[in-house]
Amino acid sequence: MSADAATETTRADSLYREIPRAEWARLASGMAQPLSETEIVQIRGLGDRLDMAEVAQVHLPLSRMLSLYAESTKRLGAETSAFLGEPDTTTPFIVGVAGSVAVGKSTIARLLRELMSRWPGTPRVELVTTDGFLYSNAELERRGLMDRKGFPESYDRRALVEFLTDVKSGAPEARAPFYSHMRYDIVPDAHVTVRRPDVVIVEGLNVLQPPPTPNDVAVSDLFDFSIYVDADAEHITQWYIDRFLALRRAAFSNPNSFFNRLASLTDDEAVERALYFWNTINLPNLVENVLPTRHRATLVLQKAANHAVERVLLRKL
Question: pTM of the predicted model, to two decimals?
Answer without folding.
Answer: 0.93
